[in-house]
Amino acid sequence: MFFLIEKYVLGMAMLRLISGMIEITAAMLMLKYNQVEKALVINSSLAIVGPIVLITTTSLGIIGIADKISFAKILWVLTGVGCIIYGVKSN
To answer: What is the spatial distance between Cα 43 and Cα 40, in angstroms, rounded to a whole number?
Structure first.
């Protein structure tokens, strides 16, 4: 039998795998340079990757279920993602 993976699930999983590879690469670079200043710069650059992956992955998921749920529920999901981003980024 063939096992079919839904294209949106595959896209979401691929984004998370790429994100994980970026995180591992950043950790390896930190170890390679072995300097706190450079490690801090590398870590700071990861602050851009996380929210982008979160938004993109969530968007793919919403697109995948858009025909199955109401518009109001989609707005609730988007509001929740917005609250997460606001909470992480606020001082």
So the answer is: 5
Domain chopping of the chain, boundaries? 7-89
Residue among 48, 60, 40 at smallest CA distance from 22: 48
Residue range 71-91, pLDDT digits in tens: 898 889 889 888 887 887 766
Distances (CA, A) of 87 to 23, 48, 80: 22, 15, 10
Closest among 23, 25, 18, 16 to 46, alpha carbons compared: 23
Q: How many CA atoms lie within 13 A of 30 on its CB side?
A: 16
Checking if the pLDDT of 1 tops 80, the result is no
